[in-house]
């Protein structure tokens, strides 16, 4: 790496290419194995092997705590794993159709993201290059805590595709702003028609706290991002210069100043864009989020009979679900996502046992594929962009 420049080429040369691939594949296998093999007690009056003893005296059956159960011939609980539960699910024609539709919704979501990145780059990226960018972006998001996401990596992905680093940063800021505005605008609209009590029962204090903390964070971040690009683009430049005063960052001061100047130039270009340009970009954002949300609707429809109004309510609940995941500290919202899924959708005619299965199916469709795709796409993308000028 040359002094005073953001040269990331060396990170992707030679043997270093295989490091993220091997680590990524290892993480994929581990997380999938952990999700499918995690043991939990379930209610089974016919084949029960354990009895509940309430060891922590909270008068609540904690199915995930082994110390809550003891071996008993007359017990009505038994140990099971998501993998066991998946084998017990009956996949008829209707279920298969709606699961296919769930995959179609994920495709719609990704196509909408590809359309948005093409709009924001003025079609600098082809559809093929946009596919690579979005897949690797999602791969990074899947491996990052929800509160971090893949945005920090995305600017370097665009930069490697030939977009100036300053412009890449501005584009990522705008995409983050648009994603956040979906929550900022739609959540109050949903709460006008559906009280918060419908989303959370009296025992879901953890989710309620995550919701209000998450909404405050997203709203504040949206305001900051809007001001940074459309009102005072000098904010980002000033922050960069302030950061470069840190001793071990001084070597990149010149490059940071250049990046800040690129951001200001890009911000001025964006301020001059027409209303139709922003409506198209935000329309693609809404379509992508609708595709993401509709996945859960399709999965529920595959196994549970729900009405049209139920579908509308489920879409509203997912605003809460995804906001909770966005402020999680686990990779891809793992753990919190499954818990939130069961808590938010428990009132739609499905047992907690079935919801546990559906949560796994949901993650298998909407989360794990990006890990596998990323591991496959990453080396091809690195080779195809190796000679591009940054």
Overview of this structure, please?
With 390 residues, the protein is mostly helical. The chain is built from 15 helices and 4 strands. The chain has a two-stranded antiparallel ribbon. Strands 2-3 form a two-stranded antiparallel sheet. The protein is elongated. The N terminus is likely disordered.
Helix content: 55-70%
> Which runs of at least 5 residues are low in confidence (pLDDT < 50)?
1-14
Beta-strand percent range: under 5%
Main sheet: strand order: 1-4
The rounded Rg comes to 23 Å
Largest sheet: 2 strands, antiparallel
Number of strands: 4
Straight-line N-to-C gap: 13 Å
- Given helix and strand content, the structural type is mainly alpha
Number of helices: 15
SSE pattern: HEEEEHHHHHHHHHHHHHH
Mean of all residue-level pLDDT scores: 75
Shape: elongated
Task: Kindly give the count of domains.
Answer: 1
GO cellular component, one term: plasma membrane
Protein name: Lysylphosphatidylglycerol synthase TM region
Keywords: Cell membrane, Membrane, Transmembrane, Transmembrane helix
Membrane topology: Multi-pass membrane protein
């Amino acid at each position: 790496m040359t002094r005073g420049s953001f040269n990331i080429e060396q990170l992707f040369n030679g043997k270093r290419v295989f490091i993220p691939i091997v680590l990524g594949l290892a993480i994929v296998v581990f997380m999938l194995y952990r999700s499918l093999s995690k043991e939990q007690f379930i209610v089974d009056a016919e084949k029960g092997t354990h009895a509940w003893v309430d060891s922590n005296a909270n008068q609540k059956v904690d199915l995930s705590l082994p110390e809550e159960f003891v071996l008993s011939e007359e017990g009505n609980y038994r140990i099971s794993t998501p993998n066991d539960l998946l084998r017990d699910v009956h996949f008829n024609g209707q279920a298969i159709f709606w699961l296919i539709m769930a995959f179609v919704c994920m495709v719609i979501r990704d196509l909408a993201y590809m359309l948005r990145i093409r709009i924001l780059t003025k079609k600098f990226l082809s559809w093929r290059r946009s596919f690579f960018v979005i897949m690797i972006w999602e791969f990074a998001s899947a491996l990052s805590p929800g509160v971090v996401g893949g945005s920090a990596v995305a600017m370097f992905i665009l930069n490697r595709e030939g977009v100036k680093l300053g412009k890449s940063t501005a584009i990522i800021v705008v995409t983050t702003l648009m994603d956040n505005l979906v929550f900022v605008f739609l959540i109050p609209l949903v709460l006008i028609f559906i009280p918060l009590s419908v989303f959370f029962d009296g025992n879901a204090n953890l989710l309620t706290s995550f919701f209000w903390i998450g909404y405050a964070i997203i709203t504040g971040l949206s305001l900051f991002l809007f001001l940074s690009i459309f009102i005072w683009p000098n904010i980002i430049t000033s922050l960069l210069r302030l950061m470069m005063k840190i001793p071990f960052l001084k070597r990149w001061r010149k490059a940071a100043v250049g990046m800040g100047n690129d951001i200001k130039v890009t911000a001025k270009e964006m301020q001059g864009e027409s209303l139709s340009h922003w409506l198209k970009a935000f329309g693609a954002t809404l379509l992508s989020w609708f595709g993401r949300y509709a996945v859960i609707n399709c999965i529920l429809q595959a196994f549970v009979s729900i009405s049209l109004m139920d579908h509308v309510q489920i879409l509203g609940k997912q605003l809460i679900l995804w906001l909770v995941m966005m402020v999680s500290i686990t990779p891809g919202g793992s753990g919190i996502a499954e818990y939130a899924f069961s808590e938010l959708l428990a009132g739609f005619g499905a047992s907690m046992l079935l919801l546990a299965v559906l949560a796994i199916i949901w993650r298998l469709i909407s989360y794990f594929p990006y890990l596998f795709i990323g591991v496959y796409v990453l080396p091809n993308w690195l080779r195809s962009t190796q000679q591009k000028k940054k």
